[in-house]
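Kindly go through one protein, given below as sequence and tokens. The question is how this chain folds according to its tokens.

***
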Amino acid sequence: MEHDSLSELEATGFEVELSGNDLEVADGGTASVQLRLSHNPGTEVTVQVAHFSGNRDIAVTDGAELSFSSDNWDAWQDVTFVARSEHAGGLTGATFRVTTDVHPVVRELFVQQPSAASTQSPAANAAQNEQPNIVLIFADDIGYEVVSPLNEDKNTPILDRLSDEGMRFDNAFSNAVCTPSRVKIMTGLSNVRNFKHFGVLEEHQIAFGHQLKKVGYATAMVGKWQLGGGPDAPQHFGFDQSLLWQQTRPRTREGSEHDTRYPNPRFERNGVDRDFEELDFNDGEYGPDVLNDFVRDFMEAQVASDTPFLVYYAMNLPHSPFDATPLSESWDPASPGSTLYLGPGNAETRNEHFKDMVAYIDTMVGRVEDKLIELGVRDNTLILFIGDNGSERLIRSVWEGRTIPGGKRQLDDNGLRVPFIANWPAVIAPNSASDRLVDLADILPTFCEMAGAPLPGGRTIDGFSLLPEFRGADSPNRDFVYIYYLNKQVLARTADYMVRRNTNTSGGTLYHFPERFTMDEVPEGEVTPEQRALKAAMVDFLDSMIQERGSAFGPPL
């Protein structure tokens, strides 16, 4: 649980005293913060420290993690954490988190920027401390192999450049299907805690839109919804404006099987000073173009009003039906949409259309970036491109000389490993490929730390902020990625190993990934001592996580 006030923590039996607010730290100086705690006998208390800084040139050395129990802690214990500024400009801020096994509390210590010690101009300092803009592009059904330096189709030059000039995460994992991934990315919670039904985000959930609005962000959601609720559902989850597909209207046109997301689309719009309205396009428009125009117009309006913004751009592309795009030779502007779920033609035709759709994704990302450059805000805008799950299973991609089938709905690399590209010129150094384990739950805490927003209270956040990683610093990470799949199966995995089992069973089967997209079951008689120890740790982890399932079927968190 998270609490925003000391009084809430004290009400549980803990006493906390905090000193050191409004500190001022010159370049190379130190700031000490004392936390004085008492606890009930026999209760273990863990004290941790974390930090944030709006200045990309500031590095902060954290205090060590300390653990106290009744055996080694007197009635009172004074603990001092030291945050040291290591670069010109001093320390701009720090967040200190006190964590107990029952209740944590977050306290913020704002350290003022010392102008005398700074070697940078006031304009440079102001630019570095400005809240960044965020554009989250969540593509629908696209596996890691499709957007990768080793993909041989080479039809994503803009995404390839954003990866080369930013950070690529090579061990990023989603759920294997749509809704669980979307619930997780918005809330920062494992699906075991809050996923109940396909196509539903429960009304009591807290999303990153809520948190960023608290600190002055304008927020928009554009693209695929498919999470239930009524006409104001996006606004309920913290988005000021929205232009969405499959919000309250069905996937197909009334009285037919024609899909409505691509040629001559049907969307739903809502937002500031605008009532909910259904929009039907019948003049040859292409749905991804309409959505992209909305994104660019929203960004332009926020820059004009000097407002930081978050855009959650949940692309429809490249989900089936695999149909022609305006870049395809077979494009038909009069088409009412495919009547087949997978699109027209045979497997070869559908694969060719998929490649065209991926190329169109690249074009759409380029238009967003061009608009940011035009508006003069590109340097301080994070563009984050992620897939929601693996590609559809009929799709074939040539990757490192191998033909890789899509794996949507499968709990292996083909279904779970997704592209994850972060580009933020003011912060992320070029060619910053990362092997850390990344989970969709990481997005909410990353956005909160970037924006200086609080984490949602009263719940366990399963993600880790990636902001230190963006800055090239060491940061906490998970031991295992955890996947809870539609109340059917669970798994824990590292980059190279996985333990998978049915939800209501114990133990599990150990699998080894000698290379990406190659999965071998490890026979019990061939398990090495090192593998046995790893498997035991994974099984223990699975056992602990499945106990969390009770909260999903009880009262709201």
